[in-house]
Every structure is written in structure tokens, then in C-alpha cells.
């Protein structure tokens, strides 16, 4: 479907970010191309600001504890903290001052400044805006395991009607300042408006009708 999603309406800093040139893509198209996009960004990094080993670039002001697993292509920005036991794979771009806590897994995602995966989180194939916080144990799912037809749908456009993405892997577009409570589950295909608060131990599935 045509991209009817204005990424700048969710992430205020998108247009000024290194991802701006991909702003014409839908978020699930960006995450599907995560490895390719991160490789392009790796090639354009400022010389000397990052320690680069293979396809992993870590800003010299970032802290990565022993025991974190970092798989390229990967960029970790200035002032970030990556804890022991964190697992990053599949092509990730992590902006400034982000936290990837112990036991957290990040896969094929783009994370803007000041966002935190606190402890024991999974975020797959997602775009997270600035200042997003995931409390302990909260999950952003990226795959419809429960059904034979795996295509993911999103609520986009007029009236919130479901629209096909053509993708079988997409987690969420989370706007700036979204708060996801402990042990909450975000089903695939979520579009979370800026500042939205998800209750602890809840399920958010935008393919399901709103309760009356």
C-alpha cells in the first residue's frame, strides 16, 4: 500500500536524523531493509568518533558491558549503555543516550535518542521514537505466530481500517515518549501515537476491535 504514515508525526526528530532519506518508506519497509540501511549508515559515520570492528560501530562515549552480544550491522550512538546479557542482531541503529538493559533483545530496529529497553525486553522489526521507555518484561512482537496467514495488518488511514502491509515481520512504530508498562505485550503491527501509555500486564493488539 502507499505510505500514508507520516513518520515525522510520530518522531519529531526523524527529518533531521540520518534516517531522513528513507522517510518515504513505510515503517515496515524500513525495518525489512534494516541490515542494508545500517550498512549505508556505517559507511557515512564521522571518522574517529566510533570504534569500528567489522560491521559493529560503537561510539567512543558509549558503554558496553562484557557479556553483551553485538552482531552487525550495528551502530550504537553516543552516551548509550548496553548491559551484560543484552543481544542485538539483524541490523540495528541505536541513537544517542539509549539504554539496552540486561536480558534485552533488539532485532532489526531503529531506536531514537533517550529510549530505554530497561530489562528483559524483546523488540523486533520496529521503529522507536525518542524517549520511549519499556518497563521490565514488556515485549514488542514482530510475527503472527498464531495463524496460518502471517501477513501483518496495521490500523492506518481514515477510520482506523485495517490495511495490509505485505510484510510478515513488523513490530511497532512507537512515537516519541511512549511508555510501555512492565510485562505488557504489543502485538505485531502497532502504531503507537506519541505519549501513549500502555498499562502494565496488558495486551495491545490493534487488529482486534475496541471493547465496547
TrEMBL record:
Keywords from the named record: Acyltransferase, Transferase
List the SUPFAM superfamilies: Trimeric LpxA-like enzymes
Asked if the keyword Transferase belongs to this entry, the reply reads yes
InterPro entries, per the entry: GlmU-like, Trimer_LpxA-like_sf
> What GO terms are given for molecular function?
acyltransferase activity; nucleotidyltransferase activity
| Name this polypeptide is given | NDP-sugar pyrophosphorylase family protein
Q: What is the species of this protein?
A: Variovorax paradoxus
